[in-house]
Design goal:
The chain is of the alpha+beta class. The protein is about 40% helix and about 25% strand. It has a six-stranded antiparallel beta sheet with strand order 4-3-2-1-6-7, with helices on both faces. It has a four-stranded antiparallel beta sheet with strand order 9-14-10-11. Strands 5-8 form a two-stranded parallel sheet. Helix 4 packs parallel to helix 6 (about 235-255) and helix 5 (about 215-230) packs antiparallel against helix 6.
């Protein structure tokens, strides 16, 4: 545009151009350059913004603050995800399952936040026990469509390792935590586990970056070692077989001692459930507020009247109700933080408002006001069984 202005000055031999002509010319040249830039760069900018928005949605979807649960958690069907997220899950799992048998004996998938996705399958092929791994060439959501390649490797393993891995996967995918919310975090890895039960039904569970020292951490470490072994890395198969056998024994022991622990509903998410450790004024609580004579859960179970229309349709859900317990133990200002259905919220408020006095929190040896968040699960099966 500047060259063009010099050209006009030269043609007019330095004579002054009218202000209106000069203004119109500059406007025309700027507009033309703007259209050129838009045609050239807007598609790329749109593509970049699309990835940024998708990244934000992916991280927002997975961001939860929560206590760890030492069981696998439910997997939401991938078909229920819409838009970019749905396309991502369907595409990446399709690639990672390349060459794997349709009915999983023991299949492990890892979805890291910022590195390539990978998977491992334990299979029996042509009478040989095999570990097969698939690794993507780059992180799928960062790549252009059609540019991601799958690297497949495999290794033959012993019958004992094959059987131990199969038994571990069947056990952990049978014991899925009854969970409201999600424990996935902003960074880390989400692990998926698949197996097939004795009736031929596929079972699955997921876990986000398990805490150290937990059984789920040991499960992930065994699976990662098996994956590395399939890729030809320096992993001792006998040592891995020992670790798998020890983990299986520990899981079986827990199942015997606590057979129904995973069936108890739990909430995991951004809200802190239970009594606050600090008062409304920020002072540290010496004795937490608590329900008298019985637990709050027992009282709720006794008082609950399941909404008839939801019970008939077997609709389950939960409510988070926050309230203040004053110095006298009286509940004040109950309100709903989260509810999966308005009728559940209505019933939760009815129960909370009808509660007798609590034992208040104590600070400095004196009763004090404090807040409490009550988790109220609604489960048709449990309600009918009481």
């Amino acid at each position: 545009m500047i060259r063009s202005l010099f050209f006009i000055m030269f043609v007019t031999q330095g004579k002054c151009l009218s202000k209106m002509f000069l203004f119109n010319y500059i406007f025309f040249m700027c507009h033309r350059n703007y259209l050129y830039l838009c045609q050239r760069y807007v598609p790329k900018i749109r593509q970049l913004m699309k990835k940024i928005v998708f990244t934000f949605l992916l991280l927002t979807f997975s961001f939860r603050l929560a206590a760890q649960i030492d069981y696998l958690e439910p997997v939401r069907p991938f078909s229920t995800y819409k838009g970019e997220l749905g396309e991502y899950y369907r595409s990446v799992f399709s690639l990672l399952n390349t060459g794997f048998q349709k009915q999983p004996y023991a299949c492990f998938v890892a979805i890291p936040s910022f590195s390539p996705e990978y998977a491992m399958s334990v299979e029996k092929k042509n009478g040989r026990y095999t570990l097969i791994s698939n690794t993507l060439s780059r992180t799928y959501w960062q790549a252009e469509k059609g540019t991601v390649k799958v690297e497949t490797k495999s290794v033959v393993i012993s019958a004992s390792l094959y059987q131990s891995l199969g038994a571990i996967f069947r056990l952990v995918t049978e014991q899925i935590q009854d969970l409201d919310g999600s424990s996935a975090g902003l960074d880390g890895v989400v692990y998926y586990f698949f197996s097939t039960d004795a009736k031929g039904k596929e079972q699955m569970g997921r876990k986000w970056s398990p805490a150290k020292g937990t059984l789920m951490e040991r499960l992930v470490l065994v699976c990662q070692s098996a994956y590395m072994l399939s890729k030809g890395e320096n992993i001792s198969e006998p040592t891995l077989a020992e670790e798998a056998a020890a983990l299986l024994k520990k899981l079986q022991q827990r199942s015997k001692e606590e057979p129904d622990a995973y069936k108890k509903p739990m909430y995991v998410g951004i809200y802190q459930v239970g009594p606050r450790s600090q008062t409304l004024s920020g002072k540290q609580v010496e004795e937490l507020a608590h329900f008298l004579d019985m637990s709050a859960e027992e009282y709720i179970a006794e008082q609950m009247i399941y909404p008839a229309s939801l019970l008939e349709k077997n609709v389950s859900g939960y409510v988070l109700c926050e309230f203040t317990i004053d110095k006298e133990g009286v509940i004040l200002r109950p309100h709903i933080l989260r509810s999966t259905h308005p009728e559940f919220a209505e019933e939760a408020l009815r129960i909370v408002k009808g509660m007798p006095k609590w034992s208040p929190a104590f600070v400095g040896g004196k009763p004090s006001d404090s807040n409490y968040t009550l988790y109220i699960p609604f489960r048709p099966k449990s309600y009918r069984a009481k």
